[in-house]
């Protein structure tokens, strides 16, 4: 009798916890959005993100963007690339909501490439 009471309770708890868990793709989306709303992105695009640039408030964060250029020139950030990355994030969000994790992750890989190495 005890097992029959515990099992349904455990299933209810498991079911309640399932939807609350964030997918790895939604975590990637949040991370890239913070990058695209950073002071470095503002430096590249010349536009302040809506709500102002974000800050990580991390003790490890740099006070100023590095002066050097990326070692791989193909990773240089551009205003157009940042705009394309924002559009790709909208697509990835829809894919994540639809449960298309593979599509979302592929789209996020492309968004990261488009964003480039932001200062």
Automatic annotation (TrEMBL):
Basic and acidic residues bias locations: 57-70, 84-105
Signal peptide: 1-22
Keywords per UniProt: Signal
Region annotation Disordered: where it falls in the sequence: 34-105
Stated name of the protein: Uncharacterized protein
